[in-house]
Write a structure and sequence with these properties.
GO molecular function: DNA binding
Keywords: DNA-binding, Repressor, Transcription, Transcription regulation
Largest sheet: 6 strands, parallel
Pfam families: LacI (PF00356), Peripla_BP_3 (PF13377)
CATH class of the largest domain: Alpha Beta
Oligomer: single chain
InterPro entries: HTH_LacI (IPR000843), LacI/GalR-like_sensor (IPR046335), Lambda_DNA-bd_dom_sf (IPR010982), Peripla_BP_I (IPR028082)
Strand content: 5-15%
Protein name: LacI family DNA-binding transcriptional regulator
Number of strands: 11
Helix content: 25-40%
Length: 360
């Protein structure tokens, strides 16, 4: 394969080689829009598939007992306001990472502000084994980590431009199974609620929902449906938009018999709003969630959901990172952990009564 050079990238974009070099070096001096154009072009042309596309790896492979003493793993969590130890989802995942690192005798450094160039300069690369990225992360900080030669494992996220190992729960399969369960209860009018721009997991959950409806001869909502783009998932600011949608559905007597939510937080909000509008859950509308956060079982009614092994995701990411360090030339892996349905009280099969009430 012919080597892709910075000059070729520059010619492809109509910029100077100097601009390309600056953008790919992570040294600053190039605005974010230009940097993103360069990264996209470099990926398209195959620049990052070459070993020369990055700085030589500063981590030397070998037995962990020899190389890991006194070293730490960076955990990159950009959305620290919500992805933190108090979070019912991310906190458990972080706990899994912390527990496994402690078991391996390694330290943990949490980085929460990756927006500035060379944010790793504040650390000592020789004291860092690698990085675990948690949740949605922009390409630029990942490129900076790759540039200095640190191995990366991403949890609940993947970047098409940065080849690395990833760890996911099997979101597609889990959502397909809970959707199939609802269809088995007799539901034929099901609606998905979430934000497809929020995370890769949400997009996979939508795919699982849609595929199961199609498999059963049912028509899913169109991709421009406003309930697929609920802004403010982390903050709950989507509630007003959701309430307006429900009020219209009530007025037109078109409320679906089952509302399939992208996570438990949405499902609990949906139950509150349905109750506010006079709908009984699950007698009139069934509601399902995803993630199995602790409070989902305490809700009245308790939320039927999909259990995501949150701590196991974190532990598996650490193990995969150590395997990558020990064998840097091995193929990249996308690891999927199995999930299970948790059957609770927010769903039922009383569909004939639901249809009569909701459709008028």
């Amino acid at each position: 394969m012919k080597k892709v050079t910075m000059q070729q990238i520059a010619e492809h974009l109509g910029v100077s080689k100097f601009v390309v070099s600056k953008a790919l070096s992570g040294k600053g001096g190039v605005n974010e829009a230009t940097k993103e154009r360069v990264i996209q072009a470099a990926s398209k042309l195959g620049y990052f598939n070459q070993k020369s596309g990055y700085v030589k790896n500063t981590i030397q492979p070998g037995p962990m007992a020899t190389n890991a003493q006194g070293k730490s793993v960076v955990v990159l969590m950009p959305n620290i306001r919500y992805q933190n130890k108090e979070s019912l989802y991310w906190g458990r995942l972080l706990e899994g990472i912390s527990r496994e690192l402690e078991k391996q005798g390694l330290g943990m450094i949490i980085v929460t502000e990756p927006n500035s160039d060379n944010y790793f300069n504040i650390l000592k690369p020789e004291a860092i084994l690698g990085m675990i990225g948690v949740g949605q992360i922009a390409t630029s900080p990942l490129l900076e980590v790759h540039r200095i030669g640190l191995p990366i494992v991403l949890v609940d996220h993947e970047d098409p431009l940065i080849p690395c190992d990833t760890v996911f729960a099997n979101n597609l399969d889990g959502m397909a199974r809970i959707t199939n369960y609802l269809i088995g209860l007799g539901h034929r009018n099901l609606h998905f609620l979430g934000d497809l721009s929020f995370s890769r997991s949400f997009r996979d959950r939508w795919t699982g929902f849609r595929s199961m409806l199609e498999e059963n001869g049912l028509t899913p909502q169109p991709s421009d449906d406003p309930m697929l783009w609920l802004d403010g998932i982390d903050t709950g600011s989507y509630s007003e938009k959701l309430l307006n949608w429900m009020q219209l559905r009530k007025k037109t007597k078109t409320m679906p018999s089952a509302l399939v939510c992208a996570n438990d937080e949405i499902a609990m909000s949906v139950c509150d709003l349905l109750n506010e509008l006079g709908f009984s859950v699950p007698t009139e509308v069934s509601v399902s969630g995803f993630d199995n956060i602790d409070v989902a079982s305490q809700k009245a009614p308790s939320i039927t959901t999909v259990n995501v092994p949150k701590e196991d995701l974190g532990q598996r990411a650490v193990k995969r990172l150590l395997d990558r360090i020990a064998d840097p030339g091995s193929p990249k892996e996308k690891i999927m952990l199995s999930v299970d349905i948790v059957y609770r009280n927010s769903t039922s099969g009383n569909v004939e009564k639901q249809a009569s009430k909701n459709m008028g």
